[in-house]
Design goal:
The protein has eight helices and six strands, in the order ααβαααβββαβαβα. With 226 residues, the protein is an alpha+beta fold. It has one domain: NADH Oxidase (3-Layer(aba) Sandwich). It binds 3-iodo-tyrosine (IYR).
């Protein structure tokens, strides 16, 4: 098919595989991604900056509403800043565990063994504060409406987590609530809402994870095929 529109280009770089190859690739991706476990026991060993940069570039390829790419990733490695993030997060978490969370919520969390103490926010070498740009800032100070913001940022975050895992790094999606303290620490404007604080690094020696987290639903339980 030829197109005359100056807005269009030929699909670049698509690769079509045989069915056998597709099945093998899909199964191998599943085998790779199923090994990912959410970790809270991080080593303090630094990670190569290039790995983080490449994973962020992968995240930045995510589809987004009107291709507005309504995200910002603040990469924190500075020890003092990590300490401030920990202080901000633990203050919110103390409120959460001492009354803000309903008994029902605390019961759902019990198998994870979490509490208000978040030492990993200082131990892990990298924290990535992910912000959702609720609206864009125009050069004249005006606002530009953004579309499908949570969907877009969620997809980009998924790409980032998968890319970091693929590179051999462990992650934790951490969401102290509310997270507005991250705006101040990262110097981000009010138009941006903290979305997830991603903790990144190597597992500590002998790191443990909750048994609960490894139990995933079988396909029939979470899909329907019509
Ligand atoms: N943000 C709290 C609580 C928490 C909530 C859920 I839902 C989790 O899956 C895990 C933790 C904390 O990090 O402890």
């Amino acid at each position: 098919m030829t197109t005359q529109s100056p807005l269009m280009e030929k699909l670049p770089d698509y690769r079509r595989y045989s069915e056998a190859e597709m099945i093998a690739r899909a199964e191998s991706f599943y085998a790779e991604i199923r090994r990912r476990r959410t970790l809270r026991d991080f080593s303090d060993q630094p990670v190569p900056r290039e790995v983080i940069a490449a994973a962020l570039l992968a995240a930045g390829t995510a589809p987004s509403g009107a291709n507005q790419q309504p995200w910002h990733f603040c990469v924190i490695t500075d020890a003092e800043l990590k300490r401030s993030v920990r202080e901000g997060a633990e203050a919110e978490e103390r409120e959460f565990y001492n009354g803000r969370a309903s008994p029902e919520w605390l019961e759902a969390l019990a198998p994870l063994g979490t509490d208000a103490n978040k030492p990993f926010l200082e131990t892990a070498p990298v924290l990535i504060a992910i912000f959702a740009q609720r609206w864009g800032e125009l050069p004249d100070g005006g606002k530009r409406k953004h579309y499908y913001v949570p969907e877009s940022v969620g997809i980009a975050t998924g790409f980032l987590i998968a890319a970091l895992h693929h590179a051999g790094l462990a992650t934790l999606t951490h969401t102290p609530s509310p997270m507005n303290f991250l705006n101040k620490l990262c110097g981000r404007p009010e138009s941006e809402k903290p979305y997830i604080l991603l903790v990144v690094g190597y597992p500590a020696d002998g790191a443990e994870v909750p048994v609960h987290g490894g139990i995933k639903k079988p396909l029939e339980q979470f899909t329907s095929w019509k």
